[in-house]
From TrEMBL, chain A:
NCBIfam families assigned to the protein according to its UniProt record, in alphabetical order: PRK08312.1
Residue ranges of domain Pyruvate/ketoisovalerate oxidoreductase catalytic in the record: 29-215
Name of the protein: Indolepyruvate oxidoreductase subunit beta family protein
Gene3D superfamilies linked to this entry: Pyruvate-ferredoxin oxidoreductase, PFOR, domain III
Automatic annotation (TrEMBL), chain B:
Domain of life: Bacteria
Descriptive protein name: Indolepyruvate ferredoxin oxidoreductase subunit alpha
InterPro entries the UniProt entry points to: 4Fe4S_Fe-S-bd (IPR017896), HACL1-like (IPR045025), THDP-binding (IPR029061), TPP_enzyme_TPP-bd (IPR011766)
Bilayer-spanning residue ranges: none
CDD domains associated with the record: TPP_IOR_alpha
Record-linked Pfam families: TPP_enzyme_C (PF02775)
Alphabetical UniProt keywords: Metal-binding
Location of the 4Fe-4S ferredoxin-type domain: 612-644
């Protein structure tokens, strides 16, 4: 009778032998979440449990976020009533096969501080929305880590993808290892290993990944310390620079110049110097330092040398503009060959063939001509169009072949004449305008000068992308007339720059510029 | 070749009486069909019952041994029309498809089948694609059952109940001469569980027997005056027969106490969620034992008046748990109570949401609210007046951090370059009216492509662009249809219609050799051989046969430049009438599944194999990500450089790359940047390969050493 006191009923979640254990796996389609769910079901059944797993197959597996769900209870001879999908606040173990999926699980309420063991691989698979921003659109991992720590009863997170890859297996194996190592389920390590072995395919690699993740989750292995950030000592002149005697001497002299700079500037200045010398030659490095000195001379410790650091960084990037010579030079270096072999994983006995994709246009061609000849062609549209029809084609060049390599090697060798080429004249003029503009503001608005320097970040890409980047750069700086004199001018330039990095065409930037325009109006009123 | 092979699992279909079957829901349904002596089975794939079709396809040997005819129907209409074999003959037949999209397609055949009625049991197994993970409009199959007056079973979501529902369904169909729909929800199809098997039964009459002794009965044909009589027969004979059967065989179940002031009535498919809510409210145990009276409708149409009314007897109020809208069941029950003059209060959508999936939380809230309002004395103190627990963690910030992750094109998908080309052509010629269709290619509507304005139904992409045909227009419409949709419905409804109505638009047929979105089943134009089906019928021939004059075939979609040129030509040509482009390349998921084991074997066996992979030179990439705005490939992603000089992450291609070529082609066609390279690894090179390689490397090293000895080299610079 209902009105009487109900007899004792073991409730779901109660601490007793008939408790239902609820486990959800949040994964990205294609990660092998189904394999993991099958293994877990198998392990449970091997241990005298009744288990039920469910999933949503189909479209959700095509690289979208997807959920696998397992419930289990000790087999008492009666069939429990299991739910088919996870409920908020009612999950004991949550396995996230990627960090943002852990975040999604928390948002969806599947992780609760009283009961949920959260096992997450800390690696990231960027979503399309994160990848398509022209700037850095990636989500903040630290936010998820911090929330996960607070939201869960236990939080086990490490890079299980890497453990899987290191052992030649898939992440499902290392996730299972982490689950076993967490002791969140009352099952022995052996029963997990039996389930993996019963799978039959890639067993050895799977068990290796399982074992490595198991140890890591138990804390019996300490992760290898992250390679320390290179410090100034590491990259001190002479430490990892090599070359002929005479060049080395000149380099030492150049690098010695950095030692007289304020300490805060040295690291960035040295990096910048290395970049420009690597790009062109020692004399180019001298030019760089001369330019940088101008900023340093105007700078002061009160500002923590922000201006000089920004100048050191962006001058180097501006001076190392991306032209055909640069690309050809980089693609024909022996270090590049080694890197490709490493990344592709070429084993002994195999041969590597590398095809490069080029699509030069008349602009790139003219840029690589002596300045006079280049501008002569560019100023004659008909001639330029005629030549463009001959040049503007996609070209596939095999850099592992004689002819292909030689062609690029030759173009890379044009480096010594670079100073006389059209592109260089254009770039230098642009650089000087920008740099003078920035330094011109140091007296009246230091922060604004730094932000103008930082706008160099906008300039990137090749061909149309480069043109668009230039246009964004110009549009951001076009707001200077309206903003200068305002106390928040630097802040506005920063906002405009960030808006420009949000989308391809700069729609967001245009919106922000309109806002800036209204600022001007209200100030006028 | 389907995405998933059940070759191993189908052996479970041979289990005999008393043996325990362990496996997925769909496999259990197949086993139940064989135990029921089914004579023929057909259907059309689509989540969540795609795998049911795959199981059947893989089980053809077993079906053949039993004399069961199986076919992969051209559409859901075909599958339902096939049930005509049960009209005059006592043969049991089953058809399966995805609901409600499939039921929409099938409804012409369904209405005719229901009108004339059946002699042999006719079972339609509909995979209900509702709620999380669904890819279709959210509607109810219930409406179809009501309008055609076919019976609808909605069993509790566990294997024994589903298997029993198949058995009940056939009997119910035969006793009431009415087709029966059996609905299985999305997770139920993939639920892993157990049941005790019975022996398989050979059909007492096979389709071969029927062919040898044909029968006809004008009274079963939908034509006046028989059709008028059918309508009366439905309510006078078939309905009462069904009601009697359901009542006598206790298809619907009662649980909990037979007393009490409140009760809950639910669709069978909702049972587990209701129990979970009661468990969490402290009113049920692990096995579902509860004192709350429950009435479980394993048959949701027709409803049994007296069964319901007796359940309501002595109860103050009853909650109806009915997922989806409109709330047909609740309305019917309210009407019963009203007509019977009962005072029991009926509640449903007051406590539970009118629309949307009844998730665990929705159910807990709804049932909790009902009990708090109607029977608070049942609830334990902590549920009745819970201590306010702080939410603990503020997730508001996290919502802005965690990116959405909708499904998208797979790694190396051949459809990606088609939409990259379309995006590039729009940059050149301006925006166009674009009609999309059902299939993987519908992912074009999402970032990074964001192409396509409508999707009107399977194979109806070009049909949905048919109004956009005007002599005054300066721009043509573009429409897409996949090969699956093309053979399902598109050939006539879209291509034939465009030819006949002189549509001037551009039609792109995305041909990936399979019905890829539903799991890679073979279709007419599949290029692989298939033991039991006739394949290799080119789409181009069919299109020509329909009368299309302007036809182009791009036989390698990865050629973005060619794709772009073809689209440009189609959009600008002077020629009138539909411009049809067939863009063909094999579904990469299927291709990898087919080729990868062969390639691995060849490499192990010492054969010369060239394996491609793409890469990015990180010092040449400037981190603008223009390439990703034309790709969205999961293997092409962003990575941070350990270099304070660089602010933005650069492009990076990970190990999952299959070397499809899209990255290089797009970089070329869109004139992006020279940072992409293709690295071909030649495994087991020949002697000539090795000779050439050593000669090349010697020369190249010489050049490299020469240059590098005259400049400074910065390690990690």
């Amino acid at each position: 009778m209902l009105d009487a006191v109900p007899p004792f009923r073991p409730r779901a979640g109660a601490q007793d032998d008939e408790r239902v254990i609820k486990l959800a796996v949040l994964a990205v389609g294609g990660q092998g979440g189904g394999v993991l769910a099958d293994w877990i079901t198998d392990v449970a059944e091997r241990n005298g449990y009744v288990a039920q797993s469910t999933s949503v197959a189909g479209v959700a597996q095509r690289t979208g976020a997807t959920i696998y769900y397992v419930e289990m209870a000790r087999d008492t001879g009666r069939l429990p009533v299991f739910a088919l999908s996870p409920s908020q606040g009612d999950v004991d173990i949550l396995i996230a096969a990627e960090l943002m999926e852990a975040g999604r699980a928390i948002i969806r309420g599947f992780v609760t501080p009283e009961r949920t063991t959260l096992i997450a691989s800390s690696h990231r698979i960027a979503a399309v929305s994160e990848k398509i921003e022209p700037g850095d659109g990636r989500a903040s991992s630290s936010k998820v880590h911090a929330t996960a720590q607070a939201a869960s009863k236990r939080f086990i997170a490490f890079d299980m993808e890497k453990i899987a890859a290191d052992n030649g297996s898939m992440i499902s194996a290392s996730l299972l290892g982490a689950l076993a190592g967490s002791d969140a389920l009352p099952f022995t390590r052996e029963s997990y290993e039996q389930a993996v072995s019963a799978g039959g395919r890639g067993v050895k690699a799977s068990l290796a990944a399982f074992g490595a993740a198991y140890d890591r989750a138990r804390g019996t292995t300490v992760p290898a310390p992250r390679v320390a950030e290179p410090t100034i000592g590491d990259s001190a002149p002479g430490s990892n620079v090599s070359g002929p005697q005479n060049l080395m001497q000149r380099w030492q002299a150049l690098a010695a110049h950095i030692d007289v700079m304020p300490v805060a500037v040295r690291d960035m200045a040295l990096r910048g110097l290395r970049k420009v010398v690597d790009y062109q030659d020692i004399a180019y490095g001298r030019e760089y330092l001369d330019r940088l000195d101008k900023a340093v001379a105007l700078d002061h410790a009160d500002h923590a040398y922000a201006l000089s650091i920004a100048a050191a960084k962006h001058l180097a990037n501006a001076m190392c503009y991306d032209d055909m010579i640069r690309v050809a030079d980089l693609k024909t270096r022996s270090t590049r060959d080694k890197r490709v072999r490493r990344e592709v994983g070429v084993k002994d006995g195999s041969i590597l063939q590398v095809t490069e994709y080029f699509h030069p246009r008349i602009e790139e061609f003219c840029g690589t001509l002596p300045a006079g000849l280049g501008s002569y062609i560019e100023s004659r549209p008909k001639l330029a169009a005629f030549l463009d029809r001959r040049i503007n084609h996609g070209r596939r060049i095999r850099t592992d072949s004689f002819a292909g390599f030689a062609a690029l090697w030759f173009i890379g060798g044009l480096r010594r004449w670079r100073r006389g080429l059209l592109r260089h004249k254009v770039e230098v003029a642009h650089l000087e305008r920008w740099y003078a503009l920035a330094l011109g503001y140091v007296g009246q608005d230091y922060a604004l000068a730094v932000e103008i320097l930082n706008c160099r970040r906008l300039i990137k890409g090749y061909s149309d992308t480069h043109v668009r980047a230039q246009s964004k750069f110009d549009r951001v700086l076009s707001a200077l007339d309206l903003l200068k004199g305002r106390p928040d001018a630097a802040d506005w330039i920063r906002r405009l720059r960030e808006a420009a990095l949000k989308d391809e065409k700069g729609d967001m930037l245009d919106g922000a510029l309109k806002t800036v325009a209204t600022l001007g109006e209200s100030a006028a009123r | 070749m389907a995405e998933r092979s059940f070759a191993k699992e189908v052996e479970k279909l041979r289990l005999g009486a008393g043996e325990e079957f362990a496996g997925e829901g769909i496999l259990a349904i197949t086993k139940a069909l064989l135990q029921c002596g089914v004579g023929y089975v057909g259907g059309y794939q689509g989540a969540p019952i795609s795998h049911l079709m795959d199981v059947l396809a893989d089980a053809q040997d077993i079906l053949g041994e039993l004399g069961v005819h199986f076919e992969a129907s051209a559409s859901e209409a075909t599958a339902t029309a096939m049930l005509a074999a049960s009209v005059h003959y006592p043969i049991r037949g089953a058809a399966t498809f995805k609901s409600t999209v499939g039921t929409n397609v099938a409804s012409d055949a369904l209405a005719n089948l229901a009108s004339g009625g059946v002699t042999g049991g006719a079972l339609i197994i509909v995979g209900e694609d509702y709620g999380e993970g669904s890819s279709i409009m959210q509607e109810r199959s219930h409406a179809f059952a009501m309008k055609s007056q076919v019976w609808l079973l909605d069993p509790r979501p566990n294997l024994p109940s589903i298997v029993k529902a198949v058995e009940d369904g056939f009997e119910l169909s035969e006793i009431s001469n009415t087709p029966v729909m059996l609905q299985v929800r999305i997770r139920c199809c993939h639920v892993h569980g157990h049941f005790i098997a019975k022996d398989n039964k050979r059909p007492p009459m096979t389709v071969a027997d029927a062919l040898d002794a044909p029968r006809r009965d004008t009274g079963r044909i939908v034509l006046p005056p028989a059709s008028f009589l059918h309508e009366k027969e439905k309510v006078q004979k078939r309905w009462p027969a069904a009601v009697d059967f359901i009542r006598q065989n206790k298809i619907n179940e009662f649980f909990g106490s037979d007393h009490g002031s409140v009760g809950i009535v639910m669709q069978g498919g909702m049972y587990n969620s209701v129990i979970r809510a009661l468990q969490r409210l402290g009113l049920a145990d692990t096995y579902g034992d509860t004192d709350v009276p429950l009435y479980v409708l394993n048959a949701v149409y027709p409803l049994i008046d007296d069964e319901f009314l007796s359940f309501c007897e002595g109860k103050q109020s009853v909650l109806v748990v009915e997922e989806g809208q409109p709330n047909y069941i609740e309305q019917a029950f309210a009407s019963m109570l009203h007509k019977a003059g009962r005072g029991t209060r009926l509640v449903g959508k007051e406590h539970l949401p009118m629309a949307g999936e009844y998730t665990g939380q929705v159910m807990l809230d709804g049932i909790g609210a009902f009990l708090r309002a109607e029977a608070p004395h049942l609830l334990p103190g902590e549920v009745r007046a819970p201590n306010k627990v702080g939410d603990g963690v503020d997730t508001a910030d996290l919502i802005n951090v965690v990116p959405g992750r909708p499904p998208g094109f797979c790694i190396g998908c051949p459809e990606r370059p088609i939409f990259a080309a379309t995006k590039l052509i729009e940059q050149e010629l301006g925006k166009h009216q674009i009609a999309s269709d059902i299939g993987c290619h519908l992912f074009s509507i999402m970032p990074p492509f964001e192409l396509g304005a409508t999707t009107m139904g399977y194979g109806l992409g070009p049909a949905s662009a048919s109004a956009f045909n005007s002599p005054d227009a300066k721009r043509r419409s573009i429409s897409f249809v996949g090969d699956g949709g093309f053979w399902h419905n598109g050939l006539t409804s879209s291509i034939g219609n465009a030819v006949f109505n002189k549509n001037d638009g551009v039609i792109v047929i995305v041909d990936n050799f399979y019905s890829a979105a539903t799991g890679g089943q073979d279709i007419l134009s599949s290029r692989a051989g298939n033991k039991t089906k006739s394949t290799k019928h080119p789409i181009t021939e069919a299109v020509k046969g329909m009368g299309v004059k302007w036809l182009r075939h791009v036989d390698r979609t990865y050629d973005v430049t060619k794709m772009q040129d073809t689209l440009r030509e189609a959009l600008t040509t002077e020629e009138k009438g539909p411009k049809v482009i067939v863009a063909s390349s094999e579904c990469m998921l299927n291709r990898q599944r087919r080729e990868k084991p062969l390639v691995d074997k060849a490499i192990k066996g010492g054969e010369r194999v060239v394996k491609p992979k793409f890469g990015v030179d990180e010092d040449i990439c400037t981190g603008d990500h223009a390439c990703m705005r034309l790709s969205g490939c999961p293997s092409l992603s962003v990575k941070s450089l350990d270099d304070p000089l660089r602010d933005d992450p650069v492009a990076h291609i990970d190990q999952s790359c299959v070397g499809c070529g899209n990255c290089g082609e797009v970089a070329d066609a869109a004139v992006l940047c020279p940072s992409f390279y293709r690295a071909d690894v030649v495994h087991n090179p020949s002697g000539w390969d090795r000779f050439l390689e050593s000669a090349r490397r010697a020369t190249i090293s010489l050049l490299q050493r020469r240059r590098e000895s005259r400049r400074l080299t910065f390690a990690n610079a």
